Amino acid sequence: MAGYLLGVSNFSVSEFLLLIFGGFLVTGSANGFNQILEGDYDKLMKRTEERPLPQKNLKPSSAIFFSIIIGLLGFYFLSLIKPHGSFYGLLSKSSAFGLLSLMIYVLSYTPLKRMSTASIFVGAIPGAIPVLLGWVAATDDFGLAIGILFAIQFLWQFPHFISIAWIQDDQYKKAGFHMMYGGEKGAYPARIAFIASIFMTIVSVTPYFFDLAGLHLSLFSFFLILSLGIWFTVKSYQLLTQINDESAKKLMLASFVYLPSMQIIYMLDKWALIWLA
Q1: What is the pLDDT of residue 47?
Q2: pLDDT for position 86
Q3: What is the DSSP string of 167-231?
C-alpha cells in the first residue's frame, strides 16, 4: 500500500483494491506453503505448536489445495493491474513480482532455515518485495526511488529478524532451525543488526538530496526520518553493548514501530505537497 501511494500520480480505487487483495492472498499462499513444509517442525516450538497442521486439525492435502487456490486468485488480481506492461503476455509486472516473492520465500527461504543462517539474507528479499510490487502497480516502472524504498526495507529486516531469532533462540534450535548468525546469541549477530541499522538510516534520508518522482522529503520530514532512524539504531547499539534478551525484545518492538512510521512520513510528505500545490 505504501509503495502504491508513493508511486501513484493518478489514484485508482480499483487498482488499489486489486493490489491489497492480490497481495494479501499471495502472502497468505506463501505462508500456507511455509506451514505445510514445516508442519513437523512447528509442533516442536511453543510459538507454532497451536497451528492447524501440528494439531492435526487440518489435512495437508486440504492445506495444499487451499494455498494453491488463494495463490492463483491472488495472482489473478495482481495480473489485472496494468496488464499492458506484461512479461511476454503472461504475467503483469505486479503478478510477476508476486510470483517471484512467493517462490523465493517457499523454495529458498523456507528450506534454508534448517541449513544455514543465509536464510535471513534470502528471506529479506521477498520481505522487501511488497513495497516494490506496490510501486510497480502504480507506475509500471522502476527507478532510483523504488530502489531506495526496497533497500530500506531490505536492511531493516536484519535487526528485525535478528531480534526475533534472539528471543526465540531456544525454540528455533529445538526445531532445528539455523536462525542466529554465528550460531549463538552474542556480539556477532548484534553487530550485524547495528551495522544494518546505520546503513538503513543513511539510505532512508537520501531522497532529501535528490529530486525523485514520488519520493521527496521536506526539511521537516528529513529530520523526522533521521530521528526515527537514529532512535532505531540506538536500540541496535544497546543490543550490541548489553547482549541480553531485554535489549533484543526492545529492538524487536522498535522494528514494529519503525517501518510503518517511516513509510507514513514519506506518504504524508508526498501528499501534503500535492494538496498544498
Answers
A1: 83
A2: 52
A3: HTHHHHHHHT---STTSSSSHHHHHHHHHHHHHHHHHHHGGGGS-BTTB---HHHHHHHHHHHHH
Q: Is the dihedral of CA 38, 30, 104, 162 positive or negative?
A: negative
Give residue 162's domain range.
Answer: 143-277
**140: which 3 cell numbers?**
509500471
**101: closest CA among 159, 205, 178, 22?**
22
Residue 83: per-residue pLDDT? 61
Please report the sign of the dihedral spanned by the C-alpha atoms of residue 130, residue 134, residue 136, residue 142. Answer: negative
Structural domains of the chain, count: 2
Which amino acid is located at 206 in the chain? T
**Any idea of the CA torsion for 112, 113, 118, 122, to the nearest 10 degrees?**
70
End-to-end CA distance of the chain: 23
Quick count: other Cβ atoms within 10 Å of Cβ 78?
Answer: 29
Contact 148, 203 (CB under 8 A): yes
Averaged pLDDT for residues 209-238 = 90
- β-pair partners for 212: 215
pLDDT in tens, 140-180: 887 888 899 999 999 999 999 999 999 988 888 888 888 78
User: Within this chain, do residues 148 and 30 fall inside the same structural domain, yes or no?
Assistant: no
Handedness of CA 271, 135, 113, 190 (dihedral sign): negative
| Residue 245 CB neighbour total at 10 angstroms | 14
Does the pLDDT at position 212 exceed 90? Answer: no
Same domain, 15 and 83: yes
Examine the domain organization and report whether 135 and 30 are in the same domain. yes
